[in-house]
């Protein structure tokens, strides 16, 4: 797993907008985590989900038919005193197993990240239409074409259908005993906000999603990744809550410079440091292919490309860093 050091300039891709990085404190304080060393060591724990297995092919894997990838197995030393530890469903036994392990080690906590990719957006259709090279070289820099606009790209009807499939899959797994997310975090881009809204519609338990600026797609140049005003988001999605300090305007998108993979990795590693810093064990993050790629990389999980609308659970161990480990 990647453990980034602190960055004096946390957003080097913004050097054109902020040529003097000392101007960066003008950015919202919610982004200050980008400038400090990580508090936690976050590492993927293999052996619980099929997506960990190198023989599982991402191109053919079906998360719906495979119970989100949960491996059917017995867990060693299942706690006799915990409900469902030995006689419950696979998900119930998994939850009891994680509960026992967390109770046994106060210095290391296990958490499950449910990473969901947004459904198909109009920009995905446009990239297929023009081909990746022409899309990257020209069309991604435009606001749209004769077929429509893709600034802060919206879902297509196919994308909404993919989110509905995820909704049905969640309800099926709830019937099988899957632990519900205790926290819901969502990218501020419209396609993720709508995907999460559809995915968790009618799911039991409180759905109180928090919009996280750092959870967004690779930043810069591509207009599909420029977010809307906070006031516009609030009007369309009144049930969502903004993290503290969320700015009205998009301060992170730059028309001239594209964020590098390394910079995106650092951003998502900092985002993880933020979201694991509470007592929650099960955390939902609705995001993008690039963001999810970075999450998997920085925790040491194998690369696993998700189709639009798909979900991957990742078990991670979380330990607080000590000065000697930084």
UniProtKB/TrEMBL annotation:
CDD domains: HP_PGM_like
TM ranges: none
Any one GO cellular component localisation term in the record: cytoplasm
Name of a matching Pfam family: His_Phos_1
GO MF, one example: phosphatase activity
InterPro entries in the record: His_Pase_superF_clade-1, His_PPase_superfam, PGM_Phosphatase
Name of the protein this chain belongs to: Histidine phosphatase superfamily clade-1
Taxonomy of the source species: Eukaryota, Fungi, Dikarya, Ascomycota, Pezizomycotina
């Amino acid at each position: 797993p990647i453990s980034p050091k602190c960055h004096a300039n946390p957003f080097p891709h913004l050097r054109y907008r902020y040529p003097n990085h000392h101007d960066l404190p003008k950015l919202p304080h919610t982004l200050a985590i980008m400038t400090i060393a990580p508090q936690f060591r976050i590492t993927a724990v293999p052996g619980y989900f099929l997506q960990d297995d190198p023989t599982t092919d991402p191109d053919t894997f079906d998360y719906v038919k495979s119970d989100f990838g949960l491996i059917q197995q017995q867990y060693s030393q299942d706690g006799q005193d915990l409900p469902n530890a030995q006689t419950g469903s696979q998900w119930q036994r998994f939850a009891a197993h994680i509960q026992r392990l967390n109770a046994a080690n106060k210095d290391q906590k296990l958490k499950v990240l449910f990473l969901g990719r947004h459904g198909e957006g109009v920009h995905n259709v446009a990239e297929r239409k023009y081909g990746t090279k022409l899309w990257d070289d020209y069309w991604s820099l435009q606001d749209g074409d004769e077929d429509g606009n893709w600034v802060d790209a919206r879902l297509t009807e196919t994308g909404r259908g993919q989110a509905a499939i995820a909704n049905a899959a969640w309800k099926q797994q709830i019937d099988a005993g899957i632990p519900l997310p205790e926290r819901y975090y969502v990218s501020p881009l419209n396609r993720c906000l709508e995907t999460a809204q559809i995915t968790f519609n009618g799911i039991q338990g409180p759905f109180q999603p928090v919009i996280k600026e750092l959870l967004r797609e690779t930043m810069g140049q591509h207009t599909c990744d420029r977010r809307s005003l906070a006031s516009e988001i609030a009007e369309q999605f009144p049930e969502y809550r903004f993290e503290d300090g969320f700015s009205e305007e998009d301060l992170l998108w730059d028309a001239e410079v594209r964020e590098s993979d390394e910079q995106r990795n650092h951003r998502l590693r900092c985002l993880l440091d933020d979201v694991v810093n509470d007592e929650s064990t099960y955390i939902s993050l609705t995001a993008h292919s690039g963001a999810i790629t970075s999450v998997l990389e920085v925790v040491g999980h194998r690369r696993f490309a998700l189709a639009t609308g798909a979900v991957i659970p990742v078990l991670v161990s979380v330990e607080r860093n000590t000065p000697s480990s930084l």
